């Protein structure tokens, strides 16, 4: 069943758990995620970036979504546009059946240039007004994703800041966060605290100097009823790096966001956790293994089946670690029409203390 992000995150907040948001580009990834959700009885967020929409094609992606929803009718599924860069990107996502959109106004429409606070508020507010009339949820972002070690914004699917970023840009200001949520009325807020896209997040296991978990805690104190989002939160597990390299890969030692730090974030208002690199790495390692051990193999299914299984196991682990396992049955879907009514009568306005 297809539902909105707002409904999922409200339920997660009520029952104190987090939901992994897995990026999907093709059928195998979608199946891996939904099989894992069924195994664990978890609700799920499927999200597609602009790059994924370009790769798969909006028309085909639309029917992939419908097929997955129809195949798993008891699983609450939110389909989310990741890192929308404009009103048009968000509107077309809604037209293709997405029940949630992210307007990332932390960067300008080119996806590379850090934007001003005023620009971010203005464009996010426009998208929120538009989406809420249709009952669709909106995620905003304040602060720019990037590394506190290097000061750089790593790119994913062509999205990410160019050049060196200041610490003020790399860390969301808690007071500004309050102002932003009040002005835009977003349903969820992605914050910057040292995480970044891709596999190469940290050169060492992150500590407080390069992963600013205190920012999450401070914002949650000021906005206890706002759902927080961690982007760039793949853990880049050591065992997956080893499999990838054992079978011909050349990935240098790298560190992601430790799962225990994500669990800490969930205790302080994080309800959505974005994961993409881990899924790519799990699948790529499995494909490399088949290619290395069976050099004469050319049946693509013999590569994709173990790759799908590897990603499924990873997704199961995240559903369980974040506390989402077993929560699907207690979620009763609310229609977009009913969500629209709730937005318009003010029932879903942000609660600002």
Write the layout of secondary structure elements.
Layout: H1 5-15, E1 19-23, H2 27-40, E2 44-48, H3 50-56, H4 58-71, E3 77-84, H5 87-95, E4 100-103, H6 117-133, E5 137-142, H7 167-170, H8 174-184, E6 188-191, H9 213-222, E7 227-230, H10 238-246, H11 259-266, E8 270-275, H12 277-293, H13 300-321, H14 336-344
Helix pairs in contact: 2-13, 5-6, 8-9, 10-12, 12-13
CATH classification, class level? Alpha Beta
Number of continuous helical runs? 14
| Distance linking N and C termini | 34 Å
- The helix/strand class is alpha/beta
Task: Please write the string of helix (H) and strand (E) elements.
Answer: HEHEHHEHEHEHHEHEHHEHHH
Strand order of the largest sheet: 1-2-3-4-5-6-7-8
Q: Tell me the fraction of residues in β-strands, as a range.
A: 5-15%
The CATH topology corresponds to TIM Barrel
Low-confidence stretches: none
How many structural units, i.e. domains? Answer: 1
**What is the typical, i.e. mean, pLDDT?**
93
Oligomer: single chain
Query: CATH superfamily assignment?
Result: Aldolase class I
Quickly give the CATH architecture. Answer: Alpha-Beta Barrel
Q: What is the approximate shape?
A: globular
Number of strands: 8
Determine the fraction of residues in helical runs and give it as a percent range.
Answer: 40-55%
The Rg value, from CA coordinates, equals: 19 Å
The main pleated sheet reads as:
8 strands, parallel, barrel
């Amino acid at each position: 069943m297809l539902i909105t992000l707002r409904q999922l995150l409200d339920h997660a907040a009520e029952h104190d758990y987090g939901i992994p948001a897995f990026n999907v580009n093709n059928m195998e990834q979608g199946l891996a995620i939904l099989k894992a959700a069924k195994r664990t009885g978890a609700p799920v967020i499927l999200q597609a970036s602009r790059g994924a929409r370009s790769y798969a094609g909006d028309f085909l992606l639309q029917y992939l979504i419908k097929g997955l929803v129809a195949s798993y009718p008891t699983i609450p599924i939110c389909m989310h546009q990741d890192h929308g860069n404009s009103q048009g990107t968000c509107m077309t996502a809604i037209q293709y059946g997405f029940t949630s959109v992210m307007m990332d106004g932390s960067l300008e429409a080119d996806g590379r240039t850090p934007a001003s606070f005023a620009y971010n508020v203005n464009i996010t507010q426009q998208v929120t007004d538009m989406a809420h009339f249709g009952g669709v949820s909106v995620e905003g972002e304040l602060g720019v994703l990037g590394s506190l070690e290097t000061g750089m914004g790593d790119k994913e699917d062509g999205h990410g800041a160019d050049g060196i970023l200041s610490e003020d840009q790399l860390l969301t200001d808690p007071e500004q966060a309050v102002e932003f949520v009040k002005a835009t009325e977003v349903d969820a807020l992605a914050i910057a605290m040292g995480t970044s896209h891709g596999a190469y997040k940290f050169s060492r296991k992150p500590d407080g100097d390069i992963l600013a978990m205190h920012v999450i805690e401070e914002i949650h104190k000021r906005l206890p009823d706002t759902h927080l989002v961690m982007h760039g939160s793949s853990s880049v597990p050591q065992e997956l790096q080893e499999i990838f390299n054992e079978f011909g890969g050349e990935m240098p030692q790298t560190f992601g966001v430790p799962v225990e730090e994500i669990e800490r974030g969930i205790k302080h208002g994080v309800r959505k956790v974005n994961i993409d690199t881990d899924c790519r790495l799990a699948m790529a390692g499995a494909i490399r293994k088949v290619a290395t051990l069976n050099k004469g193999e050319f049946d693509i299914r013999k590569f994709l089946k173990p790759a799908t299984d590897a990603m499924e196991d990873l997704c199961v682990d995240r559903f369980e670690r974040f506390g989402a396992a077993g929560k699907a049955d207690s979620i009763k879907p609310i229609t977009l029409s009913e969500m629209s009514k709730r937005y318009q009568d003010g029932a879903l306005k942000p609660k600002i203390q």
